[in-house]
Amino acid sequence: MRDAGAGSLLRRGRVAAELAWRAQPAAVLGSLAVVLLMGAAPVATAWLTKLVLDNLASGGGGGILLLAAALGVAGLALVVLPHVAEYLNGQLHRGLQRLIYDRLFRAVNADPGLSRFENPSFHDELRLAHEAGQNAPQQIAGSSLAIFQGVLTLLGFMVTLTVLSPVMVVVVIAAALPSARVQLALSRRRARTMWGISSNTRRQLFYGALLTSPDAAKEVRLFGLGDFLRARMLKELGTVNEAERDLDRRTLRSQGLMSLLGAAVAAGGLFWAVLAAASGSLSVGDVSVFVAAVAGVQTALTSIVSQWAGAHNALLMFGHYVGVVQAGPGLPVAAEPAAMPPLREGIELRDVWFRYDDEHPWVLRGVNLFIPYGKAVALVGLNGAGKSTLVKLLCRLYDPVRGAVLWDGVDLREVHPDDLRARLGVVFQDYMAYDLTAAENIMLGDLAAGADPEAIRAAARRAGIHDALDTLPKGYDTLLSRIFFGEGDERQAGVTLSGGQWQRLALARALMRHRRDLLILDEPSSGLDAEAEHAVHLGLRRHRAGRTSVLISHRLGALRDADLIVVLSEGKIRERGSHGELMALGGEYARLFGLQASGYEPSGAAGPGAGESLRTTTPSTRSAGR
Ligand SMILES: Nc1ncnc2c1ncn2[C@@H]1O[C@H](COP(=O)(O)OP(=O)(O)OP(=O)(O)O)[C@@H](O)[C@H]1O
Q1: Are 79 and 196 found together in one domain?
Q2: Residues 515, 592 share a domain
Q3: Are 321 and 357 in a shared domain?
Q4: What is the pLDDT of residue 328?
Q5: 123, 202 contact by CB (below 8 A)
Q6: Cα dist. 159→75, 165, 175, 271 in Å?
Q7: Does residue 195 sit in the same domain as residue 276?
Q8: Ligand 1, residues 352, 356, 431, 550: which to mutate, most atoms within 8 A of Cβ?
Q9: Which residue among 325, 354, 376 closes a domain?
Q10: Where is this region: Disordered (predicted)?
Q11: What is the CATH number of the domain that holds 554?
Q12: 383 CA distance to ligand 1 centroid (A)?
């Protein structure tokens, strides 16, 4: 939970006010005017009522009609103004939402690294930031206006009460003070509770999402997970509900007590006023204005206190939003990034050590590797050897804990991540399948060139998916989704692709960047049939001739033509060389290659050229493939 001293609350208040003003200045000004009128109207009504009553008691003078008309106008204002306030509030809400989300997602997106996204605290904070972003600034603005309105009403009635009974002013205010303290304590507790149950709420949403996700639907049904997931979801919801019920009980107890106190003061005041009127020291009009004033002061004070507590709670919650928006990137970006010219010599990993967290074991242990310009380097190793991790360091999604990754001798930490990534084309093992059209799925690989349909088709051809896309109901404009309708009037459901087709689509996306300096293919063809894989690799070889590539595959046959093959094991490079050299060495690579080849040989012997399209002994999983 963030610190919430007065200074920090004030700073958050300033941020919220600035946001409201930027989002909807007209609505803010309009709301101020309405608040002024609404603040003055009850006092005016009370005084006008007194004047009318006194006028009637004294036989009714000439001004009575004018007073009655003024009373009517004040009553009208009291009825109409809340609706105007509601409309302005809606306007402010819509304007604020747009601005708030724009800033929130801009800030989240500005982090070029991955580590924050793998931190549960960040997700708790993000969820609360999201929630606070939806309500807090508006609540802060709304409560501030309501406090202003309450103060206006309060001042008006205090003057009134002071004229009639100064003692009563003191009693009413004294009765309101404990209520203020209680409300503030409650708002602190509410903010603490929300932080405490944030993980439960996220887990509850997670289980709920699994129960409805089309990706999970197969396993949920086949393994019969529905009841299990529902029970877990309800358990989390139960924890959340219990915490909220405790809070509500506390609120009920405290507010009930405070209301009793207020009612006792009002009753005492009324008793005194009636006695005073009976003894002739107050007029009937005085009694009416006194009763209105006691009720008005109490209502205004209660409103000020509860609005203050609401604003206080919103400010505490808003701290999460401000925290995320102002956090700065998790992965540091150089203040004056070095230039990033095209690759000329090569990329070097120099004594690279890496682990995902201080508590986690080392994943890479002193890796030294040079990827020469214009060459294809293949990474080979069993599951968990560290291949994808090495690739993520090449993309600077993380920084090495020790050592460095150098691009033509320049440390990647010194260049801007955007400049680096503009020079890369990458397919990750866990590629994304977007619920967008086929063309859009490919276009995302190069937004600048993506509007060009020919570039999209060329990438699809290179990935061997063109024919399949061309024959879809709407060709490349077909929506690839089972959860959305296509745009337009027909509400036509989208279609979806096979796992291998999705993978080719992801490959096409990366191949939108096939002229980039470094192409990284982390298992680009594991889901393809043998013939397709062969065709894809042949195509890549042709297109990438003379360009720098890093390839990862468990099908060693697909890698045999690489200029350099590197065998990773337990985070260290164990072997390196060409296919021929490694086979001659007779080490781990030769063993794995032979093992794969033997699976296809009736005699179990691995002949030359074997393993061309063999299944791996260590199959990988697809998280995004469908
Ligand atoms: N984001 C992460 N946070 C923590 N640990 C991770 C993370 N990603 C990978 N690891 C761990 O790092 C190790 C290496 O994983 P990596 O994905 O680099 O292996 P790999 O060689 O690509 O394996 P595979 O052949 O299965 O794809 C594994 O032990 C894995 O559990």
Answers
A1: yes
A2: yes
A3: no
A4: 79
A5: yes
A6: 21, 10, 18, 21
A7: yes
A8: 356
A9: 325
A10: 602-626
A11: 3.40.50.300
A12: 8
Distance 442 CA to ligand 1 centre (A): 27
**Could you read off the pLDDT of 423-432 as tens digits, one per residue?**
999 988 888 9
**Of all protein residues, whose CA lies closest to atom 27 belonging to ligand 1?**
383
Nearest residue to 317 via CA among 532, 625, 15, 613? 15
Q: Which atom of ligand 1 is nearest to the CA of 118?
A: 1
* The pLDDT value given to residue 373: 95
pLDDT computed for residue 563 by the predictor: 93
Q: Which of 266, 290, 325 is the last residue of a domain?
A: 325
The amino acid at residue 215 is D
DSSP 8-state assignment for residue 402: E
**In this structure, are 233 and 290 located in the same domain?**
yes
Is there a domain that residue 620 lies in? no
Instruction: Measure 576 CA to ligand 1 centroid, in angstroms.
Output: 21
Residues 535 and 463 in one domain: yes
- Residue found by looking up tokens 């507790």 in the block: 189
440 and 553 together in one domain? yes
Q: Tell me how many domains the chain contains.
A: 2
**Atom number, ligand 1, closest to the C-alpha of residue 621:** 26
**How far does the centroid of ligand 1 lie from the alpha carbon of residue 275, in Å?**
84
Cα(413) to ligand 1 centroid in Å equals 22
What does DSSP assign to residue 567? E
- Identify the domain containing residue 501 by its residue range: 346-598
**How many angstroms does the Cα of residue 498 sit away from the middle of ligand 1?**
26
Strand partners for 354: 364
576 φ, ψ (degrees, to nearest 5): -150, 145
Q: Give SS3 for 411.
A: strand
> What one-character-per-residue DSSP string does 313-372 give?
HHHHHHHHHHHHHTS--SS---SSPBP-PPPSSEEEEEEEEE-SSTTSPPSEEEEEEEEE
- Which residue's CA lies nearest to atom 9 of ligand 1? 389
Total residues belonging to the chain = 626
Rounded to whole angstroms, how far apart are CA atoms 61 and 67?
10
**546 part of a folded domain:** yes
Residues 313 and 399 in one domain: no
Which 3 state secondary structure label does DSSP give 521? strand
Supply the ipTM of this predicted assembly: 0.98
What CATH number does the domain containing 293 carry? 1.20.1560.10
Question: Which pLDDT does position 610 carry in this prediction?
Answer: 39
Pocket of ligand 1 (CB under 6 A): 118, 356, 360, 363, 381, 383-389, 429, 620
- Nearest ligand 1 atom to the CA of 568 is 21
Alpha helices in 520-578 (DSSP H): 530-544
**pLDDT recorded at residue 436:** 92
Tell me, yes or no, whether 353 lies in a domain.
Answer: yes
pLDDT less than 50: residues of the chain: 1-3, 604-626
- For ligand 1, the distance from its centroid to the CA atom of residue 156, given in whole angstroms, is 69
Atom of ligand 1 at shortest range from CA of 571: 14
Give the C-alpha distances (Å, rounded to integers) separating 175 from 43, 153, 263, 356, 544. 21, 18, 10, 57, 81
- Rounded CA gap, 138 and 86, in Å? 12
- In this structure, is residue 610 part of a structural domain? no
